[in-house]
Amino acid sequence: MWKKILICMALCVCLLGALSVCAEETVDFSSFVNADGAAVIPSEINGEAVTTIPEKAFMNNTDLKTVIIPSSVTSISAYAFSGCTNLTSVTFSENITTIGINAFSKCTALERLDNMPSALESVAEYSFMSCTALKSVVFGENLKSIGFAAFASCKDLEYVYFPASVENIASSAFVGCASLTAVDLPEKLIRLNSDTFAGCTSLKTIIVRGMETTVSTSAVSSPAEVDIYVPLNSAAYASLTETEGKFHSVLTIETLPALTPLHLPEETPAEETPQV
To answer: What is the pLDDT along the chain (276 residues), one digit of tens a residue?
Structure first.
């Protein structure tokens, strides 16, 4: 008897899950975009909670300019907003834990990501690739992983805040970010991988805070032009001083107070509407 009840309960749970998926996947999400280009995604569709922005939900929608994602959403699927070339503003659900492959790639009008979700743990490969107007990214305090080429070719990117929780930044994650001048990497980072900042032609300063963080000398294209700051007697200090001449200077982190603190770029002022 109990076995039959448990089987029935399991079937009900599966059915509810299927309904939720269907509610998200059968709806035309572009219908949420109004005449002004604003989209407010509902937290429920047909009585079912919207927990995911489905794959390709808004892909190549050039009418979309702003989007508000409800708190019910915990993940953004692959290509969800890819190619939305007029998207300028995203208000994220604080409960989003994952952003999928190419989710926002080629959103060429998106300038700032200063409000990334606090629950976000992983950013998948290519997720913001070729967001060519993007200037700043501020991650929430639970981020652990940034995928391969996640911010590749974001040529205007000037500032990235990496929280203390970050453990992995994949190879080529920021390749071609030609406006980055300095990066400050947290203590939990396991390794600064090869080509992570390749093609970052303005990069002059790398700060590595972890005692156990290892550093690839090919993390940047021209290490001879970069000063790297590491803790004295750290794994990175030992290896980098043995490969003398790779970086412009290998300095101890104790000299950091002399550096200008990293800061967010100023917002571009809105153009004034001329009075008639």
So the answer is: 444 433 443 434 333 343 334 444 578 999 999 999 999 999 999 899 999 999 999 999 999 999 999 999 999 999 999 999 999 999 999 999 999 999 999 999 999 999 899 999 999 999 999 999 999 999 999 999 999 999 999 999 999 999 999 999 999 999 999 999 999 999 999 999 999 999 999 999 999 999 999 999 899 999 989 999 999 999 999 888 876 668 889 899 887 755 555 666 666 554 443 343
- Exposure string (b/e) for 160-188, b if CB count within 10 Å is 16 or more? bbbbebbebbbbbbbbbbebbebbbbbeb
- In degrees and rounded to multiples of 5, residue 225 shows phi and psi of -100, 5
DSSP 42: -
**Would you give the DSSP letter of residue 31?**
G
List phi, psi (to 5°) of 191: -155, 140
DSSP state at residue 106: T
Instruction: Give how far Cα 126 sits from Cα of 139, 154, 248, Å.
Output: 16, 11, 30
Is the Cβ–Cβ distance between 242 and 219 less than 8 Å? no
Residue 192 corresponds to which tokens in the numbers above?
């600064």
Q: Give pTM, 2 decimals.
A: 0.85
Spatial distance between the Cα atoms of 120 and 127, rounded to a whole number of angstroms: 13
Structure tokens given for 70: 């409800």
